[in-house]
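In response to reviewer comment 3 from the previous cycle, which asked for concrete evidence that the modeling workflow produces usable outputs, we include below a single protein chain processed end to end. The sequence was submitted unchanged, and the resulting structure tokens are shown without manual editing.
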Amino acid sequence: MISLAGRDIVHSWRKFFFTGVGLGLLIGVTLTMAGVYRGMVDDAKALLDNSGADLWIVQQDTLGPYAEPSSLYDDAYRGILGMPGVARAANITYLTMQARQGDRDVRSMVVGVESSGHGEPGQPGYLVAGRQITRAHYEAVADISAGFKLGDRIQIRRNHYTVVGLTRRMVSSSGDPMVFIPLKDAQEAQFLKDNDAIAQQRRRTTANPAFNRPGAPGLLEAVIASQSANSYVNAVLAQIKPGYAPEEVAEPIRRWKRLQVYTRSQMEGILIGKLIATSAKQIGMFLVILAIVSAAIVAFIIYTLTMGKIREIAVLKLIGTKNRTIAGMILQQAVSLGVIGFVVGKISATFWAPFFPKYVLLEPGDAVRGFVAVVAICVLASLLAIHAALKVDPAEAIGG
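The workflow returned the following structure tokens.
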């Protein structure tokens, strides 16, 4: 039997094709939004993978170091190293800020890592160019997405750093490129006050009556020295020995060191379930709105095409064409429109995804689910046009 839907599509192919392209661009935006969410999740997992840690030890009663601020004394790692099952432990700091290169500012996550020895938790695991940090001050390793090159001079707070290495996919949970600098420099950048604040704090301390008594000058000097010290870090990253379970090592640290300890699965739950949860809900709302808009567009187009063929449908009914044949024709047109739109949308999303400032991860599974959703939307959207077509009176074929 001749395909009535195919003949009608060929007859008005320009209108049908350009309608499919417009719908396809909308579907491309929908696939891209899903890819943005997948990219956020992948960034969060990459952050944990790249840390090289099995345990994250942070300030008690906090969700640090990524979701909340956390502050530990920088000598806490020594006690953690002595705990059963701990193979390595290293201090680390995280600070999201602007790294300046000339007149250009780059929003980055500045990471303070131990510069003595390689393979410590928190250090970049691999480089695409250059070398690791070997000096205690003023060297940096940056992710290539920051746009820095080997030998570039960048400014972080008051100090300047030379980029000696480049890495890839070392990003924060929000997609900001990481810049690794020596731990002491990072502590200074994060915790050290500016000169005016230090001078004002010293004046306030000196004016305290408690330091104006005999024998107090020595105590005053000690207090002033402690106020200028940088003795804090955000977290301690630990690797466990083979044969130990993460929770088996974490529980004694919680009990005896009075610190909060998170395993990999717990930290992943914090990042995905709390840190990016609001963004995920927002993207979900956009997907729902785009699905409704897509359904409305398909319904309007198919209804318009059907109403433009009222006389032809009446003729079909007059010659004895069954209702299911007419309904099948309209349904085929709607599904064909959805297939064209999906193909255009998938190609568009694949083309423009690399140009987005945030990482967009287009997973095959999302494409399959998207195709099924598009077909389902087109089927539902065709029901209005089918209902209108089936109500057509065959007498209209011979009417004026």
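The chain has two domains: 4-44+277-397, 60-192+230-258. We consider this sufficient to address the reviewer's concern, and the full set will be provided in the supplementary archive.
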